[in-house]
Amino acid sequence: MTGQRSFARFAWGVLAYNIFVVVWGAFVRATGSGAGCGNHWPMCNGQVVPRAPQLATLIEFAHRATSGIDLIAIVILVVWAFRAYPKGHRVRLGAALSGFFIVTEALIGAGLVLFEHVAKNASTARAFSLSIHLMNTFTLLAVLALTAWWASGGAPISPRPAHQGLLVAALAGLVVLGISGAITALGDTLFPVTSLSAGFSQDFSPTAHLFVRLRVFHPGIAIAATVFLLFAVGRVMKQSPGQGTQKLGLAVMALAFIQLMIGALNLALLAPVSMQLVHLALGDFLWIATVLFTAEAWSRS
After folding, report:
1. Alpha-carbon distance 193 to 55, whole Å?
2. Are 142 and 167 in contact (CB under 8 A)?
3. Where are the domains of the chain?
4. Of the four, 109, 161, 224, 260, which is 20 to 30 A from 216 by CA?
5. Quick one: pLDDT at residue 292?
């Protein structure tokens, strides 16, 4: 049991580290450093360790290094799970899925570099690859969170008819919101503005780039997804009065409200890099809290 408690702490640590890696990846994008290693992968400008690097190279190389450490940590997580838990245990499943999705995460990241969907690339193809990357990242965070939750005593899950539709729709809404946010952040990076009025003029200009014209939809999507999430969580909390459901439900509601306020502040401040990173981190926390709330609501305890 001591080994399993240590594994649970390690699993939560790996989840926290992954949030850091995600935020650092956003810093790479926000600073236009995605091409810092050129179109080379896994090498950086054709070298294992770049010599006399520029700042963009240092930022991108640091991201690759932290991602490599992440891969090693999840390999340890998988091996440890299969040694500490019996065959068929849900922790083994969560760890195995984490291993699969960290590999797909690395492959998608490599594809972004090799196809040059980084830095100043403003192609439609980049929006699609960015969306795929975000969905994979969300899935990775979800399975890591479930692995840690199950290792900490979380019960097995089985979707309940009374909750299934609402919670699946709420999770899907967060994915759509995340995709629109990623494209909006990319538009803010590629087409920065100096004032809100200039930004609105860009957003509604028929000659504006697609990323700029899509930017106007993100606040509406954020409000709609948040309202629906709050409705769904409130409804499930009424039907499932258990202590775990109530605590996680309140956490989701608080994070959703804070995230909406931070989003408004980010817009008002014209999306500075620091606010973009805070906004993203809160979005990841909200996603993880909603996943765990869903798992608790569907638990067979």
Report:
1. 24
2. no
3. 1-154, 155-301
4. 109
5. 98
Residue written as tokens 């003029």?
Answer: 201
> Using an 8 Å Cβ cutoff, are 170 and 232 in contact?
yes
Question: Rounded to an integer, what distance in angstroms lies between the CA atom of residue 158 and that of residue 90?
Answer: 12
Per-residue model confidence as pLDDT tens digits over 128-143: 999 999 999 999 999 9
Residues in the chain: 301
The 10s digit of each residue's pLDDT in 236-282 is: 999 888 899 999 999 999 999 999 999 999 989 989 999 999 999 99
CA atoms of 144 and 2, how far apart (whole Å): 20
The CB density around residue 169, as the number of other CB atoms within 10 Å, is: 14
Q: Is 199 exposed, middle or buried (0-12, 13-18, 19+ CB in 10 A)?
A: buried
Amino acid at the residue 100: F
Task: Map the chain to HEC letters.
Answer: CHHHHHHHHHHHHHHHHHHHHHHHHHHHHHCCCCCCCCCCCCCECCECCCCCCCHHHHHHHHHHHHHHHHHHHHHHHHHHHHHHCCCCCHHHHHHHHHHHHHHHHHHHHHHHHHCCCCCCCCCHHHHHHHHHHHHHHHHHHHHHHHHHHHHCCCCCECCCHHHHHHHHHHHHHHHHHHHHHHHHHHHHHHCCCCCHHHHHHHHCCCCCCHHHHHHHHHHHHHHHHHHHHHHHHHHHHHHCCCHHHHHHHHHHHHHHHHHHHHHHHHHHCCCCHHHHHHHHHHHHHHHHHHHHHHHHHCECC
42 preceded by a cis bond (ω within 30 of 0): yes
Between CA 29 and CA 280 the distance in angstroms is 12
Amino acid at 178: G
